[in-house]
Amino acid sequence: MRPFVLLATRPEDGPADEEYALFLRYGGLRPEDLIRVRLEAGPMPVLDLDAISGIFVGGSPFNASDPDARKPAVQRRVEAEFEVLLREVVARDIPFLGACYGVGTLGSHIGATIGQEFGEPVGVVPVTLTDAGLTDPLLRGMPPTFNAFVGHKEAISSLPGSAVLLASSPGSPVQMFRVGRRVYATQFHPELDVDGIATRIRAYARHGYFAPDELEDTLAAVARVPVTETGRILRRFVELFAR
Q1: How far is it, in rounded angstroms, from Cα 199 to Cα 70?
Q2: Per the structure, how many domains does the chain have?
């Protein structure tokens, strides 16, 4: 099998390593099947898209909707690199699944409206599939509504006509969309389990996702509601597109 690639941007080693492990686990992949590239540490390498099965994008501290003047140099570099990559990915319909930061990268590329109106605090939300989501090959077998982990300051408020809305939540109208047949992005985190989101809650306790004195309440809240279905999306992505 040709490997998949995980494009990551988390600077903290603990959450970054755990993110990679979670993509391996829920994708049903071995380490040799998933090449990790930490974009915060250096430039994106040249990716031979004919030599890989597909691309995953993990979460990020970056917000695509921030004014350019407030973006650090590394974020501006990463965004420029994604723009070049996505030009080819979308044109060739290369298998792509961006989780959370994938909404910012893919959404920016296709001209979606992104802002902070529909940000969601760290927690568990019900995600409901649209009619298109119910018939999408990647979401086959998923229940019409399922719980998912979220935590994001920005979100898409509207999609261009080139994208297909696949899922929404009560607080965020675009939880998942598709471009072409094989290019996807989710606002929720399909790779996370309770331990994984607990690691991130602790790591980003002072990054503005919740008040510092809400740490214990936030940890309790994400453990209270079961999240059992989202990992199937990663496994299905691998089943569909491994070659």
Answers
A1: 27
A2: 1
